[in-house]
Specification:
146 residues, alpha+beta, Aminopeptidase, 5-stranded mixed sheet, 29% helix
Length: 146
């Protein structure tokens, strides 16, 4: 059976938030609670889910304002599908959905920057952030000591 790609608002009503939470856990991209995922995906302008025979194997989203900025985040691919090009396709789909924005931004997991460079992303020199858990952000390589 061919993969089923669902975009934007498609698939939100019947999304299995437990299944999505499990995908992030095994990807491994951390422990994301189902209720929190429902909120963040619902508040994202662009969403993408990939299913194989009804099983969720990849997901991602972009928070966007429709004109200036689109922030691609939470790209997750099941471990047995990593390296297959699915992550690249997911990012490409979200970039295409974000077309027309002045800038498209994403955070890369530390060490994954070369992957995103191949997709056209460049390191930002002035980006700054406030994290709810700064210690964890520092440990994961998202921020450094000043």
């Amino acid at each position: 059976m061919a993969l089923e790609w669902r975009y934007s608002s498609e698939g939100m009503a019947d999304a299995d938030w437990e299944e999505l939470s499990n995908l992030y856990r095994i990807a491994p991209l951390g422990d994301k609670k189902p209720a929190d995922l429902r909120i963040v995906f619902s508040n994202s302008m662009f969403k993408c889910f990939v299913y194989d025979t009804g099983k969720l194997i990849a997901a991602g989203r972009a928070v966007a304002d429709g004109r200036d900025c689109s922030y691609i985040c939470d790209i997750a691919v099941a471990p047995d599908r990593q390296g297959s090009g699915m992550g690249k396709e997911m990012v490409a789909a979200l970039v295409k959905l974000s077309a027309g924005h002045k800038k498209i931004i994403l955070y890369a997991v530390a060490g994954k920057e070369p992957f995103y460079r191949k997709l056209g992303f460049r390191r930002m020199l002035t980006a700054m952030a406030i994290f709810a858990n700064a210690e964890q952000a520092m440990q994961s390589g998202l921020i450094g000591e000043e």
